[in-house]
């Protein structure tokens, strides 16, 4: 009788000790993980913080200085950078904004059209077009760049924003079509069917049912489209020659090619301003961005 | 006929922007590029048919073509595995409900978003300058840093580090994949006294294989296409001594600095075939090492 009670107590004791040991081990490993993750985060963010600090340092303090606190804050770097090139950055930011806003609108409209056709409508040849659309996902931009350039050259579009904007209205980015198709397919089909019985046209269904229900997908596409267009360098590099037309990345590039001028502070100041919209977008829309990647494997 | 039209009208109406784009901006240009690759064309005079001469020249005489291939392959084969290993390592540390995961995830992903920007390329140039931050750090540890930007032995490392810095997006995809691995497998392995290394190779790697494979293909294609970092850091030319002559940089220069549109088109086709071949190899070999959950063996 007593024996069995004792052994029951023992088992409970052992089990508790085992659980405690396991919890201690888990805690220790969690602490180690946090140390590793914090160090990694610091290394990841350090270059960006260094750039921010350098944008406020006097020029002679920038190179090789590891510190993140300027000896005195040179706010005039921002003023100097803004006006350092023959054309002021007001113009460059305006140009970038025009190109980006129109590109985002074009992408969302045209890609959602295509995605709606692929996900919800029946028409002959759909399978073939779908396969071709998926194939275009793989084509590197460099391969179509030269013929596209020649086409736009013949149309007289070089040195305008049309080569950067018109393709966006023609659903040029298959990534977004793919992302939207994935989303549209999750919406219940009964909605379309009910609307069809009520006599809604396919456009009405797209506009009044699919689009309002797909705002997260549209927002995700819009955000990525914004970020990629804002950062795009190759497109503007090829199509824009007049400094008046430059977008912000092209303007930044002229900072380093305008030789000999040691304007590191102002250069970093403008670099910081150029990525500021992206960082703000990232902070505001972080959730959507991260879900978008998990959903589609965007870069 | 009327019925046919009616049945297909809506579909093609919605598809029409994409269809126009597909013909004029995708398939049309690809075929035009194939045609141009058999010609000599400098934009001013009409294209002149020269058969396979561009390709003969490329493979037999053009040292810079081989150099560009070598630089690009080195970049892809070094940066992609390092980036993926690091991404997986961090993803595993983040897995299983660690505190503040949202913060870490956001911080690690931020470089992926900014990495392609000119601002970061400019920053990188300064960091790796001989008098720059990287060498200052090396000096703290008593080392003496090389001339990263002007010594062809080291210059590619600046871009490899830049690529690894952007490990955030494969990391997010790994995280999603790790979540899908059933916990019971690890618990069962623990009962069998399997250590962390054993668990990693016996459970994590095989079950994560489809995700690893997906990331591998995606990152390889991205690496082959990368342009602006190499362009900015090398001053647009692939310098020093062509050690940063990425294939895309070479192609850009042939087309838009020297107006050799025919030759550049041939280069573009080689790039397309290389990317297609690598993707095909990745898909083909995947059946030997990728096992999807719902199939056996």
Automatic annotation (TrEMBL), chain A:
This is Sugar ABC transporter permease. It comes from Devosia soli. Its main location: membrane. The lineage of its organism: Bacteria, Pseudomonadati, Pseudomonadota, Alphaproteobacteria, Hyphomicrobiales. PROSITE patterns: ABC_TM1 (PS50928). The chain crosses the membrane at residues 31-53, 92-116, 128-152, 164-184, 205-230, 267-290. InterPro entries: MetI-like, MetI-like_sf. Residues 93-285 form the ABC transmembrane type-1 domain. It is found in: Cell membrane. Coiled coil: none annotated. One of its GO terms (cellular component) is plasma membrane. Keywords: Cell membrane, Membrane, Transmembrane, Transmembrane helix, Transport. SUPFAM superfamilies: MetI-like. It is a multi-pass membrane protein.
TrEMBL record, chain B:
SUPFAM superfamilies: MetI-like. Keywords: Cell membrane, Membrane, Transmembrane, Transmembrane helix, Transport. PROSITE patterns: ABC_TM1 (PS50928). The chain crosses the membrane at residues 12-36, 68-94, 106-124, 154-178, 199-221, 227-252, 264-284. Coiled coil: none annotated. It is a multi-pass membrane protein. GO terms for biological process: transmembrane transport. It is found in: Cell membrane. It comes from the Bacteria. GO terms for cellular component: plasma membrane. Pfam families: BPD_transp_1. InterPro entries: ABC_transporter_permease (IPR051393), MetI-like (IPR000515), MetI-like_sf (IPR035906). Residues 69-282 form the ABC transmembrane type-1 domain. Belongs to the binding-protein-dependent transport system permease family. PANTHER family: ABC TRANSPORTER PERMEASE PROTEIN, ABC TRANSPORTER PERMEASE PROTEIN YESP-RELATED. This is ABC transporter permease. The lineage of its organism: Bacteria, Pseudomonadati, Pseudomonadota, Alphaproteobacteria, Hyphomicrobiales.
């Amino acid at each position: 009788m007593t024996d069995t009670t004792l052994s029951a107590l023992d088992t409970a004791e052992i089990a508790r000790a085992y659980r405690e040991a396991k919890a201690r081990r888990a805690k220790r490993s969690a602490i180690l993980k946090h140390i590793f993750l914090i160090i990694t985060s610091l290394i990841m963010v350090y270059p960006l913080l260094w750039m921010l600090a350098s944008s406020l340092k006097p020029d002679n303090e920038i190179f090789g200085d590891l510190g993140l606190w300027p000896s005195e804050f040179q706010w005039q770097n921002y003023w100097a950078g803004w006006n350092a090139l023959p054309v002021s950055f007001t113009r460059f930011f305006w140009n970038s904004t025009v190109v980006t806003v129109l590109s985002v609108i074009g992408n969302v409209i045209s890609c959602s059209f295509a995605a709606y056709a692929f996900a919800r409508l029946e028409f002959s040849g759909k399978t073939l077009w779908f396969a071709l659309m998926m194939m275009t996902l793989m084509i590197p931009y460099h391969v179509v760049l030269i013929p596209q350039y020649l086409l736009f050259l013949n149309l007289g579009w070089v040195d305008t924003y049309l080569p950067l904007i018109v393709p966006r209205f023609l659903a040029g980015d298959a990534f977004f079509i793919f992302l939207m198709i994935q989303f549209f397919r999750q919406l219940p089909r009964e909605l379309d069917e009910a609307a069809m019985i009520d006599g809604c046209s396919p456009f009405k269904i797209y506009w009044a049912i699919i689009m309002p229900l797909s705002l997260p997908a549209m927002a995700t596409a819009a955000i990525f489209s914004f970020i990629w267009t804002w950062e795009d360098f190759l497109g503007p590099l090829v199509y824009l020659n007049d400094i008046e037309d430059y977008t912000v990345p092209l303007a930044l590039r002229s900072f380093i090619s305008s030789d000999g001028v040691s304007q590191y502070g102002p250069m970093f100041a403008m670099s910081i301003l150029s990525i500021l919209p992206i960082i703000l977008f990232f902070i505001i829309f972080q959730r959507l961005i991260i879900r978008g990647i998990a959903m589609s494997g965007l870069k | 006929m009327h019925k046919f039209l009616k049945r297909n009208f809506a579909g093609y109406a919605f598809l029409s922007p994409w269809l126009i784009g597909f013909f004029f901006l995708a398939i049309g240009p690809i075929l035009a590029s194939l045609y141009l690759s058999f010609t000599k064309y400098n934009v001013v005079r009409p294209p002149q048919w020269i058969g396979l001469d561009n390709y003969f020249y490329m493979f037999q005489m053009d040292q810079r073509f081989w150099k560009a291939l070598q630089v690009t392959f080195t970049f892809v084969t070094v940066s992609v595995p390092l980036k993926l290993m690091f991404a997986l390592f961090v993803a595993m540390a983040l897995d299983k409900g660690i505190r503040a995961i949202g913060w870490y995830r956001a911080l690690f992903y931020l470089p992926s978003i900014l990495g392609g920007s000119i601002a970061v390329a400019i920053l990188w140039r300064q960091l790796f300058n001989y008098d720059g931050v990287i060498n200052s750090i090396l000096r703290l540890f008593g080392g003496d840093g090389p001339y990263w930007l002007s010594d062809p032995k080291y210059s590619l490392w600046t871009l490899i580090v830049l690529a690894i810095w952007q490990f955030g997006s494969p990391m997010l995809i790994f995280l999603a994949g790790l979540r899908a691995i059933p916990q019971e497998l690890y618990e069962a392995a623990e009962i069998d006294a399997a250590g962390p290394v054993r668990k990693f190779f016996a459970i994590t790697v095989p079950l994560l294989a489809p995700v690893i494979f997906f990331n591998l293909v995606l990152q390889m294609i991205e690496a082959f296409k990368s342009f602006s970092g190499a362009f900015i850091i090398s001053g647009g030319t692939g310098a020093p001594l062509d050690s940063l002559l990425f294939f895309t940089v070479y192609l850009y220069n042939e087309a838009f600095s020297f107006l050799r549109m025919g030759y550049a088109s041939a280069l573009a086709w080689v790039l397309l075939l290389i990317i297609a071949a690598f993707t095909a190899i990745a898909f083909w070999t995947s059946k030997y090492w990728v096992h999807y959950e719902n199939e056996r063996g």
